[in-house]
Specification:
about 100 residues; about 55% helix; Phage_HK97_gp6-like; Phage_gp6-like_head-tail; single chain; Hypothetical protein yqbg; 4 helices
């Protein structure tokens, strides 16, 4: 599976200057790419479309910041809003 985003890109998204969490960030990227690949029903294309890159970036950043299910107004959110919308156009529909 091609890498959609890099650790330095995720650090920029999170406004992190330190490289202390790079191993954890790499794990979040791997997990987000696996999620995106599973959601679209296939491999992430190489090069990855902008929408998939953005979804992976959002998801990896969310999982880094939340580290668990987050709640807003009592509702738990495991996936940030917009991730599924970005991936939907790349979903492989099986008939």
């Amino acid at each position: 599976m091609p890498v959609a985003i890099t650790v330095p890109e995720l650090r920029v998204q999170l406004n992190l200057e330190s490289e202390d969490d790079d191993t954890l960030l790499a794990q979040k990227i791997d997990a987000a790419e696996a999620y995106a690949s599973s959601y679209i029903g296939g491999e992430i294309p190489d090069p990855a479309p902008a929408a998939i890159r953005q979804a992976v970036l959002m998801l990896a950043a969310f999982w880094y910041e939340a580290r668990e299910a987050a709640t807003t107004g009592g509702n738990p959110y495991l996936i940030p809003f917009g991730v599924h919308d970005l991936l939907q156009a790349h979903h492989a529909w099986v008939v």
